[in-house]
Amino acid sequence: MIRFHIPNMTCGGCAKGVAATIRDADPQAEAQVDLEKREVTVERASLDAVALAEHLLRDGWHAERLGG
């Protein structure tokens, strides 16, 4: 499980965009978004946290890794 804080994810459209970016980068990944906390949890990812963060940043999402 990989968790990110996405400070610029402020609305439902943003949440859909973050989930789409993760899906596009890693089609087998499952992203669960918590808009209130501005967090996304990614499970079943074949990419590591660094690669996912790079994809998010390329699409304009500033992802800060949470936890280990």
TrEMBL record:
Segments forming domain HMA: 4-44
Organism: Muricoccus roseus
Pfam families assigned: HMA
Keyword check for Ligase: no
Family matches, as InterPro entries: Heavy-metal-associated_CS, HMA_dom, HMA_dom_sf
Keyword terms, alphabetized: Metal-binding
A molecular function GO annotation: metal ion binding
Designated name of the protein: Copper chaperone
